[in-house]
């Protein structure tokens, strides 16, 4: 029993540190909507861009990545990238964001 208590004590701060950024992300994602994603660009800017426009994740625009690949990464996660379930990004929005990213031009070089 004492080993169970010990492992819970270790896990709690780790879970809290993981949950916080997603609480923030989820709050922001729907901040200007009514729980419905407006477009692929909307999903990209509200979710993906937080990491993929700020060097947390690799650049994914301008690479003609196949939408099917993008969907698979989003649903399953990929190494350091967390998975996003349909309760957060529905299938239609996921298809739209995949098409948006696939067709998007490469970001302008920053000075
Ligand atoms: C919390 C940060 C975060 C968010 C939010 C995020 N990603 Fe990622 N993503 C990552 C990281 C980090 C990687 C690199 C994973 C690795 O290589 O270990 C990645 C990798 C990827 C890849 C693979 C890139 C490649 O070079 O093959 C795709 C595709 C991708 N993300 C799509 C998305 C999409 C679409 C969204 C929005 C729905 C999104 N990501 C949201 C962090 C994030």
Automatic annotation (TrEMBL):
Transmembrane segments: none annotated. Keywords: Heme, Iron, Metal-binding, Signal. SUPFAM superfamilies: Cytochrome c. It holds the Pfam family Cytochrome_CBB3. The keyword Heme applies. Residues 1-31 form the signal peptide. It comes from Metapseudomonas resinovorans. Residues 37-101 form the Cytochrome c domain. This is Cytochrome c.
């Amino acid at each position: 029993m004492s080993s169970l208590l010990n492992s819970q004590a270790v896990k709690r701060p780790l879970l809290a540190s993981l949950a916080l950024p997603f609480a923030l992300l989820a709050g922001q994602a729907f901040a200007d909507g009514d729980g419905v994603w407006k477009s692929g660009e909307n999903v990209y800017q509200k979710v993906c861009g937080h990491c993929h426009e700020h060097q947390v994740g690799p650049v994914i625009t301008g690479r003609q990545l196949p939408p099917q690949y993008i969907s698979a990464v989003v649903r399953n996660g990929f190494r350091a990238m967390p998975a996003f379930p349909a309760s957060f990004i529905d299938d239609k929005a996921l298809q739209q964001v995949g098409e948006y990213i696939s067709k998007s031009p490469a970001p302008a070089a920053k000075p």
